[in-house]
Amino acid sequence: MNRLESASVLLSLTEHLRKEGSWTGETHVQKAAYVLSRVLGVPLDYEFILYKHGPFSFDLRGELSAMRAEGLMAWEVQPFPYGPSLKEGELGPALKRQFSAVAERYDKQIEFVAKKLGSKDVKALERFATAIYVTRDLNTPQPERAAKLHELKPHVSIPEAEEAVREADEFLREADEFLKEAKAAVPKE
Amino acid sequence: MFRSGQYTTLMASRVHEFRDPIHGFIKLDSEERKLVNSRPFQRLRHIHQLALTYLVYPSATHKRFEHSLGVMDLAGRIYDVVTDPENIRHDSVRDLVPRRGEHEWTYWRRVVRAAALCHDVGHLPFSHAAEKELLPDGIRHEDLSRDLILSDLLSGELKDLKINAEDVAKIAVGPKYFRRRPGQEQYQFSTWESVLYEIIGGDVFGADRMDYLLRDAYHAGVAYGRFDHLRLIETLRILPREDQGSSEPAMGITIGGLQAAESLLWARYFMYTQLYFHPVRRIYDMHLTEFLRQALPGGKYSTDLQQHLRTTDNEMLAMLAEAASKPAQPGHDSAARIVGRSHFRLLYESTPGDLQRNLNAPELISEAAGKEFGAEFIRYNPYSSDADSEDFPVYQRDGSIASSVQLSTTFAQPPRFAVAYVFVAPEVKEKAKTWLEERKDRILSSAEGV
Questions:
Q1: What is the separation of C-alpha A162 from the centre of its chain, rounded to a whole number of angstroms?
Q2: What are phi and psi for residue A75, nearest 5 degrees?
C-alpha cells in the first residue's frame, strides 16, 4: 500500500472504532492498528515495539501526526476527564472518495477488530495488546506469559495479566477462524 | 544497566564553562569535558546544523557541536526539575524516581547528560539533508550514534564518567533505534528509561527540540523560534496518564506552564513554515543529494565508524567546489547549480483547494510537467514535519490531570504545516509557468475523483 492508501485504512479504522463506541484516542488507534496488521494481516507497514501502553509504533505516530498536519484527521475534544479523540479532518472526504476501494478491500478485517476492541478503555487495551504481543513472541503456557506481561508492565497486576492472556488466546482463536472463513468465502477462479 | 553499588564514586571534579549565545554559560565537569574532547564529539564542529540553509539565511552557519552542548545543558536542567521531590505528587512516580542525592540519582543524571551530548554523533555531513537517500536501506544517523557510543571510540571517556555505555546509548537514541542492534532482546526499556529518553528526544518537550528551535531561530536571525523555555522547564513533571485512565507515567506539565507550551508549538509552526520548509532551502537539499549520490563511492556514505569520523561537511564542500569547476567530474551539474546559485525555481506549491479536488495534485502536476519539459528539468518535493504529539498530561490546581488538548484550543486545533513543491530548472521557468497556468485545471480535472 502506498502512503495515502494506508491513510485511508487508518481513517476507516478510526470511524469503525467510533461506531463501536470507542473513545478513539491515539492509543486506541495504535493498538487497533497493531492487531489489524499483525493478527489480521492487513498490510500496514508500521514497525511496532513494546513502549507506551504496550505495542507502539513511532512510524504510526508520525503518520497520524502527518495526517493531522494535512487535514486528513483532526482532534475532537471530549468532556472532562476524557482525552481527545481522532476524527475525520476537512480533507477526510477527499481521502475516502479517492481511495474507497482500498478501505472496502479490508472492511471486514477492520470491522472485526473494531467490534472486539471498540469497547475497551486505555488500561484494558494496554493489557490486551501487550498480552497479544507477549503471546506472539513467547510460545509458552499462560502463566509464563502472564508473568512476562507483569514484568514488562509492573502496574498490571498478576491476576489482571492472567485474565489478559486468556482473553488474548481467545481473540487469536477467533481471529484464526475469521481468517479461515474469509479465505473460504473467496470464490475460486 | 545500573546496579546499586556497582560504581564506587561519582564525585564531580573541576567545573568548566562554555560561553553560549542561547544558554549563557554551559557548565560541565572534567570527566564530561573528556567526552567533549573525544574525536566523535569534536567532529561535530564540522557538521552544519542546517546543511546549506546558510545559502538562504546567511548567518545560519552554526554546527551540531554547540547544539549538542545546549541539549546537554537543557537535559540536565529538566532532569533536576522532574526528579525534585517537591515536584512529585503521585506514588507511582515516586516509586519510579531515584531519591535526589543518592548514588543512583547521580548516576542517571550523568547518563542523561552524556546521552544528550552524544545523541548526534552519528550525524552525516550536512545533518538531515540527504540522510535517507545516502545511507544503506533502513539505516539512520541514530544507528550510527548508537554504534559509536557502544564502540571503543568512546568507551574510555564513558568509563571515566563511571557510566555504562549501554545505558547512555539507550537514552541517547531511544527505543526505536536501540532495539535494532543485532542479537538484542526485544524488551529492554523500563518505564524509567522511557521517561529519561523523553527528556532528550520527547516529541513534545524534548531538550533536543527546545534547543534546535531556539538556536536555529537565533542563528537564522528570525524571531519566530523563541519561546519561554525557562518557564516551560520549571513546570515539567512526570505524570501518570490519569486522563487516559492509565497509571503509566509520561512527561507533562503543570497548568502554569500551558502558555509556555503553547508558545513552543507556535514557535515550531513558524520555524517550519518560514525556515525548514523554505522552498529554496528544500531545492538546495535536493541538488546536494543528487551531487553526493554521484560523487560518493557507490553513491552512499560509509557506515564504517572510522570512515564516518573522517567525513564532515569540509571534505564534501571541497568535493563540491571541485566538481562545480570541472564539467567532467561526477555530479558536476548539481554542484554547479549550488555553487553558481542556478538552483531550480518554485513552479507549484500545494494549496488546500487543489488538494480538495485531488490529494495527488502536486504529484500529478509534477508528472505532467516532467512529460512536457523532460524529467531532468523538474523536481518534486513533498514535505511534512517530524512526528508530533499535542496530547500530553497537565497537572491542574485541584490535583487532577487533564489532557492538553482539552485545556487549550492551540493544542486542540494546532497550526498545520505540510506542503509539496514542484520545482523547475531556471532555463525553462517562464515557459513552464505559462504552461501551468493554462493546464493546471485540466490536469486536476482529468484525475478528479480517481
A1: 21
A2: -80, 145
- Is the peptide bond between A81 and the residue preceding it cis, with omega within 30 degrees of 0? yes
Q: Which three cell numbers stand for residue B186?
A: 526485544
The whole-angstrom distance between B436's CA and the closest CA on chain A is 23
Tens of pLDDT, residue by residue over B223-272, are 888 999 999 999 999 999 887 777 788 999 999 999 999 999 999 999 99
Q: How far is B258 from chain A (nearest CA, A)?
A: 16
B133-155 as b/e: b if 16+ CB within 10 A:
ebbeeebbbbbbbbbbbbeebbe
Contact B244 A27 (CB under 8 A): yes
Q: What percent of chain B has pLDDT over 70?
A: 93
pLDDT tens-digit readout, A102-116: 989 999 999 999 999
The full length of chain B comes to: 450
| Size of chain A, expressed as the number of residues it contains | 189
Distance separating the N- and C-terminal Cα atoms of chain B: 54
Highest mean pLDDT among B137-146, B404-413, B434-443: B434-443
B334-340 average pLDDT score: 97
Average pLDDT over residues A65-81: 88
List, as one string, the DSSP characters of A54-66: EEE-HHHHHHHHH
The pLDDT value given to residue B383: 83
B residues 369..388 contacting A (CB < 8 A): 384-388
**Which chain A residues contact residue B352 at CB under 8 A?**
71, 90-91
DSSP string, B382-439: EEEPPP-----EEE-TTS-EEEHHHH-HHHHSPPP-EEEEEEE-GGGHHHHHHHHHHH
Cell matching residue B242:
490519569
Give yes or no for a contact between B291 and B335, defined as CB atoms under 8 angstroms apart: yes
Partner-chain residue, chosen from B357, B400, B405, that has the shortest CB–CB distance to A83: B405
Phi, psi of A187 (to 5 degrees): -65, 135
Q: List CB contacts (< 8 A) between A154 and chain B.
A: 191
Closest approach of B447 to chain A, Cα-based (Å)? 10
Amino acid letter for position B436: L
Residue A87 sits at the chain B interface (C-beta within 8 Å): no
In the chain, the amino acid numbered A181 is E
Residue of A nearest to B272 (CA): A69
* B374 contacts: CB under 8 Å, gap ≥ 6: none
Residue entry with cell 537514541: B173
- Tell me which chain A residues have a C-beta less than 8 angstroms from the C-beta of B241: 122
CB atoms within 10 A of CB A184: 8
Other Cβ atoms less than 10 A from the Cβ of A172: the count is 16
Q: How much is the average pLDDT of A167-181?
A: 94
